[in-house]
Amino acid sequence: MQDSLVIVLNGGFGNQMFQLAKAIELSDSFNVSINTTIGVTPKTNSGVPSIFDYFLPNSISVDQTPVNLVNQKIIKLLISTRLRNFRNPLAGSLSQYLHKALRWVFLFFSTQWSGVHIAKNISDTRLNVRPGRNLVVGYFQTTKWQDEKRIHSTMANLRHKKGSSALEEYERKADLEHPLVLHIRMGDYRNEQSIGMVDEKYIELALEYALKKNQFKNIWLFSDEPEEAMALIPARFLTSVEIMKELENSPTLTQEVMRLGTGYVLSNSTFGWWAAYLARMEPKVVVVPDPWFKKIDEPLGLIPIGWTRIPR
């Protein structure tokens, strides 16, 4: 009997996509399911994480095992003591000792899990698997999959439950306009100093570079705050910019529209990253900020070969 892995869904849609990609990779060797009851994820109007707007691969099942309050708190402590960065080495060492102690307590009293694995950082993909049923928590933000082509193909061919009819108008529009997709993530990034929101200078340099590489007929702007994002775009580009509103109040349908671009200028967001990575047409150019994060390490293997980095 195969050992089983239960991967916890955590974070927004972009993060969920990386967790699904890891689940697909591991499904060749393990019985893999994704858990919807432990992590913290935004919910759709249907009350489920965004990833369930898609038909999942047959190899991936859904785990909805209820977790008692004590175990939930221990799991959250396990995550925070594993992933948090400490400037003080002593505090970092104490945090890791606490993590090991909590892990031992969790497994000693747990009747649900044979093992628990918490990734060391947001790009960590190594697993320490025990025989039996393993709980796996991580962000897995990387393209360092064992079989990248298989993962890319499977993710690109995920079928949206509402996709075809809702997207027809945008597909025709993209055929005519060959758009450059500009994604500007704002919102909580303003206050996340370690992540850092992209600024006017980066957007100007990135647009200049992309437009020199290819003649795009229009710029499609996607943003969580489109009016504020427009203020970051140099005046000489504004006549070519069209604000693209969220389609049917659905982040996943909106990303499907973003995938219709023929070029991309991205902020440091996994939402835009996936749109470019899974673009319907081979993009002429993909531009990303360098560094990806302002003050923390970039996830190892996140930026594909062929994408262009522009300083910010």
- Strands side by side in the biggest sheet: 10-9-8-11-12-13
Q: Percent of residues in beta strands?
A: 15-25%
CATH class of the largest domain: Alpha Beta
Order of helices and strands: EHEEEHHEEHEHEHEHEHEHEE
- The rounded distance between the terminal residues' Cα atoms is 51 Å
Enter the CATH topology name of the largest domain.
Answer: Rossmann fold
Q: Helicity, in percent?
A: 25-40%
User: Major beta sheet, specifics?
Assistant: 6 strands, parallel
The total of helices stands at 9
Mean pLDDT value: 89
- Cα-based radius of gyration, to the nearest Å: 20 Å
Number of domains: 2
How many extended strands? 13
Summarize the entry for a quick read.
The chain is an alpha/beta fold. It has 2 domains: 4-137, no CATH class; 165-311, 3-Layer(aba) Sandwich (Rossmann fold).
Written description of the protein model:
The mean pLDDT is about 90. The chain folds into 2 domains: about 5-135, no CATH class; about 165-310, Rossmann fold, CATH 3.40.50. Helix 1 (about 15-25) crosses helix 4 (about 150-155) and helix 8 packs across helix 9. It is α/β, with parallel strands linked by helices and about 300 residues long. Strands 10-9-8-11-12-13 form a 6-stranded parallel sheet. The protein has a 5-stranded parallel sheet with strand order 4-2-1-6-5. The protein contains 9 helices and 13 strands. About 35% of the residues are buried. It is globular, with a radius of gyration of 20 Å. Strand 9 (about 220-225), helix 7 and strand 10 form a beta-alpha-beta unit.
